[in-house]
Design goal:
By secondary structure, the protein is an alpha/beta fold. About 45% of the residues lie in helices and about 20% in strands. It contains ten helices and twelve strands. The strands form three sheets. A five-stranded mixed beta sheet has the order 4-3-5-12-6. Strand 1 and strand 2 form a beta hairpin. Helix 1 crosses helix 4. The chain is globular. The two termini are about 45 Å apart.
Length: about 300
């Protein structure tokens, strides 16, 4: 293998796949698409002349050659990262840049407070301008440089944007403590007949629930649609309506509201919270640092 012709990014892909034993998880780790991971491995195979990984039912298994080079490759990448990180830490401590981030109300509510504590400690002069993720063209914003980052439960925008999975979230049902028809659990018939409070943050969030309801042969009886999740607990606490909302957001609800938190009687796929960025900021040390802190915060939610 001629190292002078080798793209070092291929080694990053190799290291991620070796550690994860799964192409999808490696893609999430690096903020790449799964086809991009496959293409990188194909290029690296041309350099090494080895298959590197063998497909299995639930992932991949490294070849003997991969086992042999994994240690040296990992140590080399760690050493390079340490050198680059030392410089980026100095940059972060003194930068007075302003980064613009579009975030869902969910992300703003749960991520911003711990993120600000990190900023206070490590990047006291870095400024964040946070914008709502609805009402603006996210793709144009990333392409034009008006946005540095987009964070939320958003389907992948388009292929050429990089993205990274931050965490997953489940939806639960909430009802007031003294609801006449609901005490401790809710069945499908009660859910079907109840009046609902819906949310219109993004169309996909509403339709995801209603699409599953349609498979059960009904539509929710939506009494009112609110612009985001935050008013929901207060409306539910004072009415006989019910609502479906992310479980983690309920940590912010005052205990005196006395809400019932119930498993949904329908099965919804977990929502994936992601961050998206344009290729132009991939190697920017300040942008990269912010993405690392986003991941760090979300891993503790």
């Amino acid at each position: 293998m001629n190292i002078e012709k080798l793209d070092l990014n291929l080694l990053r892909v190799f290291d991620a796949v070796y550690r994860e034993r799964n192409l999808s998880r490696a893609a999430g780790r690096l903020g790449l698409s799964q086809p991009g991971i496959s293409q990188a491995l194909s290029r690296l195979r041309q350099h090494t002349g080895d298959a590197l990984f063998i497909r299995q039912a639930h992932g991949v298994m490294p070849t003997a050659y991969s086992d042999a080079i994994s240690g040296p490759v990992g140590r080399a990448l760690d050493g390079l990262q340490a050198v680059l990180q030392a410089q980026s830490v100095r940059d972060i401590a003194v930068t007075d840049r302003r980064l613009r981030v579009a975030m869902s109300d969910y992300s703003q509510s749960l991520i911003l407070a711990p993120l600000i504590r990190i900023l206070d400690e490590q990047a006291p002069q870095l400024q964040l301008r946070v914008l709502p993720d609805d009402g603006i063209d996210l793709q144009d914003g990333l392409n034009s440089g008006e946005l540095d980052l987009v964070v939320g439960a958003i389907p992948p925008l388009v292929e050429h944007f990089r993205y990274q999975d931050l965490c997953t979230e489940e939806m639960v049902c909430i009802a007031r403590a003294g609801h006449p028809a609901i005490q401790g659990q809710i069945d499908l018939e009660t859910y079907k007949n109840a009046h609902h409070v819906g949310v219109a943050v993004r169309a996909a969030q509403l339709s995801r629930i209603d699409a599953v309801c349609a498979t059960h042969g009904f539509q929710r009886r939506i009494r009112v649609i609110v612009p985001n999740f935050l008013p929901m607990p207060f409306v539910i606490a004072a009415t006989d309506c019910i609502a479906s909302m992310p479980r983690r957001l309920l940590r912010l609800v005052p205990p005196h509201l006395g809400l019932q938190v119930l498993p949904l009687p329908i099965e919804l796929p977990l929502a994936v919270i992601r961050q998206f960025w344009a290729e132009r900021t991939q190697q920017d040390p300040v942008s990269r640092w912010l993405r690392e802190q986003m991941l760090r915060v979300c891993q503790t939610l």
